[in-house]
Structures are given as structure tokens and as C-alpha cells.
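Board notes (copied after class):
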Amino acid sequence: MTENHGRNHDGKRQGDVPSRQRKRFPGISSRAYEHPADRSALVALRKLSGFDTVFKALSGLLPERSLRLLYLSDSVRVSDAQFSHLNDMLRDACYILDLDRVPAMYVTQNPVPNAMCVGLDEPVIVLTTGLVELLDEEEMRAVVGHEVGHALSGHAVYRTVLLFLTSVALKVAWIPLGNVAVMAIVTALREWFRKSELSADRAGLLVGQDLQASMRGLMKLAGGNHLHEMNVDAFLAQADEYEKAGDLRDSVLKILNVLPRSHPFTTVRAAELKKWSESRDHQRLMDGHYPKRSEDKDASVTDSFRESAGHYAQTVKDSRDPLIRLVGDIAGGAGDLAGDLGGRLRTVFGGAAAKDSGKESGEDTDKKPGEGSEG
């Protein structure tokens, strides 16, 4: 593991240097690894005037401070003295993603494997004992990178607003249609939040720089500590089968199953991460070409939303899900119909315009073909 004393040529403590040679991304913006839908939402939120003040105020209405005190009093804080191997991983992750402030991290007693990053002003990372006992070092490194990615992106915004709106939904449930309106927003936020998990998976890969370890970790979350009984290719084949679905009934059931979830399904996450790892964007990032944090203020909201819309359009085009393909075919058919109708209208109105133009110029537009005008 890493040494915990001295400084390297960058002025960083040697304890902040990864324990094996990995690429580092100085000044990297979270936009470099964010899913297009996640990125568009975050860029728009960052452009809002008073954004930080408003959401920190919202955070104050929630038990965020109480949670921090609870973890401090009833969990184990990761440090050089406690869970030192996790502390090394945390510093490694912050070093690789160039995060100046290392978030506090706690291990809490809970047999369910889980990890989360909470807090707007001072992010706190929490790992359950079930997760710590389940994953090996490289798998855990990807998870810690995942949570540091959440902190760098500011994803606690989604969690804070979701908690706030869920609380509001309960209070306005008696108002006709009030709950429906709030829950519509909550549903949209959940979609963003699910995409934020895909973003954080990418951050985990940037930190661990070991795709197989990321895949193993996701498999263990799905199937437990029985790695000798599992196979990455077969696991990804499940994602492919899920994507194809069966018929329209299965497509509807998939939507109903995912709506209440904060995370995408595990096989889907694995397939998405593998696809991104093979993309040109990932290769460019690993080659050192990526947006910088110093440029975030100049990021275009319009461009981000255009990229998000393009991503969803491409997803619909490439999807093998029966319902999504049907929607795409209907949309395409409507587009073809609109284009055909537009062409007919242009022909009709264009002809009428030409006729009127001929009358105004004194031409006899009623002459039969072949009849000439008098000279």
C-alpha cells in the first residue's frame, strides 16, 4: 500500500499517491465522465443564480446534519488508525480525480452491501460492513471512486431535492392533483438520479482503472460472494436479454419495475460501463484530453441539452426493446407523414403562388401546353 508520510514532486503527501501506477487527471471536470442526461441537468442547475444558496437552504430542512452526527457517534470513521486500507483508497481516489478536500468516510454496521455519498456543503461517504466484507481490494477501490465521483459532481443535490419533494408529496397528498404534480417531478428526478449512478460508475472506473474489477463488483452486488459461480460474459448476456425483453407486456413491466428505483439494474450498469469503456470518449479521457473544472462556468446549457437529446434519440434508434422500437417507428412514421404532408402543401401553395405570380405579370396561365404568346 501507500506510504503515509513525506511529499512527492507535486507537493502531495506520498500517502495521497495511488498504491500502483495509475493515470491521474489534474483539474478534471465531472463533465468528463457524466452521462449526457446527468450532465445536462447539472450544467443547467449550476447556471441557476443562487443555486448553491437555495439548495444549501433546502439541505438545512433535511436531517443531513443529524445524519452526520449519527455516523460520527454510531459508526467507525475511516482514518490512518481505523480501516487504514480504505483510507488509502479514499486518498488515492481524491488524488486521481484531483479533489482538494478529502471527504469524511464512515463504515456502518449493516449486512446489506451498500455505499452512499450524502451532504451538499461537506460530502460524507458511508460504506456498510456488508459491502466491505463482500468486495476485494480492487473492487472496493472502484466503489470508493464511484462515491468520490458523486462528491465531485455534486450529486447530493439530486438526493436532497428528492428527499425534500418526497416530503412535500406526503404533505400535499390531500390536495386534488397536488400529489400527482409533485410525483411527476420526483419521477423525473429519479431518472436523473439513475443516470447519475451511471456517471459515478464511470468515475469508479477512472479511479480503479480496472474494468474487470468493476465488473466483478457489480456481479457481487447482484449475486453475492460466489464469484467462482459467476461469469462476466454470461452476466453481460443477461443485460442483452433484458434489453431485448419479450413483448410489449415485458416492456411495460420493465418501466414499472424501474420507476421507483434510485439505481439502474445491476446488469444494465455493467453493460453501460463496458460500453463506455470501449468508447472514443473514454479513450480520449485516458489520453489526457478532457474538460477542466476551470471551464465549467463556460459550459453551454444548450449544447448539454442538445447532447442529452441526441443520446436519447440514438438510444431509441439502437434499442431492441419492443416498446421503444414501436415508439421509434411511430415517431419515424409521424416524421415521414409530416414530411410527405409538408411536401404536398409546398406543392399546392407553391403552385398557387406561381399562378398568382403569373397573373400579376400578365401571363395567360390558362393556356394549353404548346400555345405560345403573341409577339
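Comment from the instructor: The chain has 15 helices and four strands. Residues 322-360 form the longest helix (39 residues).
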